[in-house]
Every structure is written in C-alpha cells, then in structure tokens.
C-alpha cells in the first residue's frame, strides 16, 4: 500500500551547512497544468508557487529549499513546457525550462495520469534524453491505485520507471523522496580542518546598478570588474582576491537581480542563469552583503534573495549606497524603509555609504570583518556559563504549562552559524520570547553582529526517568 504523508518540516540550518559546497539543484518540468506547482509546494512544504487550474500560471522559475532526509537541495519550479506553441510567451517559458534542465543536477518530469499521453510529453522526454541528466518520471494526479493502473499508457514513452503520485493528497511522496535521494550527486565530504578564519568570503548581491562592481573595484584599487551604468553588465559571479590591513578577502561580485517585470523576453535566459549563479555564490561565502540604492530603497526582489541567504544560515550586512544623493532626513527614511522591508533579519546591521564619493567604504569593510569574526567565533563553555548565570539572575525563564524550566549548563556546539546547546529539564517549556531574549543577550555580550543564532534546548537524561521531554531547537527566524 502506498503511504501518505503530511507536509514535511526540516531544520532551518542543517548541521555544517556553511561548510558544504553549493546545494544540488532539482528542476521540476512538464507540460502545462500537470500539477508541477502543486508538487513543488508539496516537496518544499510551502505555498511559494501559485497553483491554479488555468494552464500557464507559472511563467518564471521559482526557487525554494527542500530536504530529503537531512540533506538540503534547491528545488526549481518551471513553467509549462509546450514547444509546439507559436505564443511568444510560451516560447519564453520553453527557453526557461531548457535553462533549468541545463543547470540542474536532477530533473523531475511530471506527467498527467488522467489525460493520457500527448505529443508535448514525447517532446519533453526527447529533450530530457539529450540532456544526459538523471530524470525521475512521475505520473501526477494518481489519486488512487485504479487511476495509477490506468496510467500505464505513459510507459509508451519508453522510460524505465514512472512513479505514481498525488501531489494534492501526498500519495506516493515517500517513493519520490527515495528516488530523488538516490539520484542526487554525492556530497563532497568535509574531512579537513575548518576553513581558515583569516580568509573572509563575501558575496555581494542586489539589484543592477546598485554599485556592486564599483564597490569591488574601489576595494581592489583597480578596475577588476567591468562597471557600466547599464543594468545587467555583470552576468557571472566574479571572484576578486583583496588583501587589506593584513586580512584577505574574496569578494564575489554577482549579477544584478531585477524585478521580473523588468526582464525582457530576450534576456530572460541570461537573467535566469545570473540569478542561479548569485544563489550559488552565497552558498560558498560566509558573509552576504546586500547592496541597495538608498534613493530607490530595498526592493521585494532584494528581500527574496536575502531570504535565501538567511535560509542558508549566512551572516548578512545591508549596505545603503549612494547616500550622497540624500539629505539627512532622506538617509534616515532609507534606513527605516530597509528595516521595514527586511524584518525577517532584524539582526542585520545597516551601513550607509557612497562608493562613488569613497565615503563609508572602509567602514563597510570593517563591519564585514566584524560580522565574519562573529560568524566563526567559538565561545568557551566557561564564558558561556558565566554569561548564563548573569542572564538567569536578571531575567529567569517564565513558567510555561505549570512547569518552571531549569537550566544546567550551556555550550557552543558549532560555528558558521553558531549553535548553542542548553541542557534543561523542560525544553518544550521555553517560550519563543525568552529564546529571543537569550539570543539578543548573546549578541550583546559576545559580539555576534549580523549573525544568525541557533539555540537548542536539550533535555537532560536521567537513568531512572529516561528523557524528560523532546529537544527543541530555535533560531532567529522562529522569534
């Protein structure tokens, strides 16, 4: 019998996530209205993709994080593939699909179990065979064993296996999970010591013409990166090694991320690849700097791409450039607008500068260095427990559910990002507001500026009682 399962939950920051290379990319493709977006939402445990019965609702590609077991990967939802159509919009969607397949490590091809085989399915399979990528074929809308049996006609495509699933109801998702896990490329094991703390890897992201390349050139003291007033000059992530004041920095200049309404049909493929490169640049850096035009303010697309950095547990800095164009009140409004737009990362410091006038550039680099040093910092258990004694004296945890939490000791288990483990008698009784208080106090005492903090409240085991309760892990995102 096929097992059903509810929407998954996953750790926000997988253990050692900052030490891994770029995540594997899994693309979901298929003709219009076969349920790709519903499957995307089911796999990611979200409602990020718009779902509608009308074909062609998904026009651009959506990125989101998904997990199989404890392993994270990036899932891409594509528009409906219809190579026979003369509609220019559908032709653009076809190009987007081709880009997704080209960049993907694994492809999930979605077929419709209820409508039978059509020519668009044959053409999609032909394209996928040419790609030489691992392909998993699924027959969606297999809401029952009877429907799945009636979909055997799809095997005329000549594929070895088709997994019957119902993205709407969760049927067959365990089999699909297992197939994705088998198809993912192996992770490169991290056997050596942690990366050298003196090398600061920084990804610079933001909209076109925000001053990303100008910042790199200013810091490098030469025109290492092409700078142009026209948006879209930088299309690949470019690494520049800089040494300043005895510290070495790898500055990764990424392509400008435009709003979808600003992307032309001709540039859509290049734009899609550029965004993917920006995402992968963040995955190999410790610190992400979001460059914004202070006059224009932080855009929704900036917030989305910064959200991917936060999801990956990266340290973040917000840089408001071109502040020389604003008066004092204008700069204050720009900072307030940035805080309002980026409320999901309240710990991210905001730095005003003008790259063109060389004002605040050195201060930005000093802030990035401070943020990085906090990101890799390891605090001794003795210091942490002295800190915790002071916290408990000033503000003991409130009673929850008639049970007063007791804390025994605290230690730091990981860096990049920092993870603290607190041994307690009642992990489930720690209110989120108290977690936020403890996280803020950790930042204040030990200088974790711009750094996401995780705290795991772990039940102390007793031989005669067993485990007191479930372990609870909280992060800045839960507060």
Can you describe this structure?
- The chain starts with 23 loop residues before the first strand and ends with a strand.
- Helix 2 runs parallel beside helix 7.
- It has 479 residues and is of the alpha/beta class.
- Mean pLDDT is 80; it is low at 1-20, 48-61, 190-194, 226-236, 260-269 and 463-467.
- It is globular.
- A six-stranded mixed sheet has the order 2-3-1-4-5-6, with helices on both faces.
- It has twelve helices and 18 strands.
- It has helices at 36-44, 88-103, 119-131, 145-150, 173-183, 212-220, 268-283, 300-311, 328-341, 361-376, 381-394, 432-446; strands spanning 24-29, 62-68, 71-77, 106-112, 135-140, 162-164, 199-206, 238-244, 247-253, 287-293, 315-321, 350-352, 407-414, 419-424, 454-459, 461-462, 466-467, 472-475.
Please outline the helices and strands.
Layout: E1 24-29, H1 36-44, E2 62-68, E3 71-77, H2 88-103, E4 106-112, H3 119-131, E5 135-140, H4 145-150, E6 162-164, H5 173-183, E7 199-206, H6 212-220, E8 238-244, E9 247-253, H7 268-283, E10 287-293, H8 300-311, E11 315-321, H9 328-341, E12 350-352, H10 361-376, H11 381-394, E13 407-414, E14 419-424, H12 432-446, E15 454-459, E16 461-462, E17 466-467, E18 472-475
Parallel strand pairs: 1-3, 1-4, 4-5, 5-6, 7-9, 7-10, 10-11, 11-12, 14-15
Antiparallel strand pairs: 2-3, 8-9, 13-14, 15-18, 16-17
Helix pairs in contact: 2-7
Count up the helices: 12
**Helix content estimate:** 25-40%
Number of strands: 18
Strand content: 15-25%
With strands numbered from the N-terminus, the spatial order across the biggest sheet is 2-3-1-4-5-6
Mean pLDDT: 80
Q: How is the main sheet built? A: 6 strands, mixed
Described by the principal axes of the CA atoms, the overall outline is globular
Order of helices and strands: EHEEHEHEHEHEHEEHEHEHEHHEEHEEEE
């Amino acid at each position: 019998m096929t097992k059903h399962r509810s929407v998954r939950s996953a750790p926000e920051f997988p253990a050692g996530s900052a030490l891994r290379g770029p995540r594997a990319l899994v693309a979901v493709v298929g003709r219009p209205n076969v349920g790709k977006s519903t499957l995307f939402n089911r796999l990611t445990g979200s409602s990020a993709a718009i779902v509608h019965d009308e074909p062609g609702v998904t026009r651009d590609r959506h990125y989101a994080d998904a997990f199989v077991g404890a392993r994270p990967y990036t899932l891409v939802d594509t528009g409906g593939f219809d190579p026979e159509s003369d509609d220019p919009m559908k032709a653009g969607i076809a190009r987007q699909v081709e880009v997704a397949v080209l960049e993907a490590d694994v492809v999930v091809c979605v077929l419709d179990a209820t409508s039978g085989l059509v020519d668009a399915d044959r053409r999609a399979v032909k394209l996928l065979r040419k790609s030489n990528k691992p392909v998993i074929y699924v027959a969606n809308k297999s809401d029952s064993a009877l429907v799945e049996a009636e979909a055997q006609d799809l095997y005329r495509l000549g594929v070895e296996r088709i997994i019957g699933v119902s993205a709407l109801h969760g049927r067959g998702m365990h089999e699909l999970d297992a197939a994705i896990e088998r198809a993912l490329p192996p992770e490169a094991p991290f056997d050596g010591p942690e990366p050298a703390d003196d090398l600061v890897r920084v990804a610079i992201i933001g909209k076109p013409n925000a001053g990303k390349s100008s910042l790199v050139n200013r810091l490098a003291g030469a025109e290492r990166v092409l700078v142009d007033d026209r948006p879209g000059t930088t299309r690949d992530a470019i690494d520049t090694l800089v040494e300043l004041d005895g510290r070495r920095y790898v500055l990764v200049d990424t392509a400008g991320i435009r709003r979808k309404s600003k992307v032309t049909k001709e540039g859509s493929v290049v734009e899609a690849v550029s965004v993917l490169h920006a995402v992968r640049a963040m995955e190999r850096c410790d610190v992400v700097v979001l460059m914004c035009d202070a006059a224009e303010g932080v855009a929704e697309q900036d917030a989305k791409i910064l959200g991917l950095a936060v999801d990956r547990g990266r340290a973040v800095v917000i840089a408001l450039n071109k502040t020389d164009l604003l008066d004092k009140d204008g700069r204050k409004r720009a900072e307030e607008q940035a805080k309002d737009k980026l409320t999901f990362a309240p710990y991210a410091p905001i730095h005003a500068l003008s790259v063109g006038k060389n004002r605040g550039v050195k201060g930005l680099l000093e802030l990035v260095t401070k943020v990085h040093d906090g990101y890799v910092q390891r605090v001794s258990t003795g210091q942490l427990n002295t800190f915790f004694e002071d916290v408990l004296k000033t503000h003991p945890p409130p009673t929850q559910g008639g049970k007063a939490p007791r804390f025994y000791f605290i230690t730091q288990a990981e860096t990049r990002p920092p993870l603290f483990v607190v041994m307690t008698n009642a992990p489930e009784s720690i209110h989120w507001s108290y977690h936020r208080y403890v996280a803020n106090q950790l930042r204040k005492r030990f200088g974790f500026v711009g750094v996401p903090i995780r705290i795991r409240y772990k039940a102390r085991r007793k031989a005669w009682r067993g485990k007191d309760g479930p372990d609870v892990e909280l992060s800045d995102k839960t507060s």
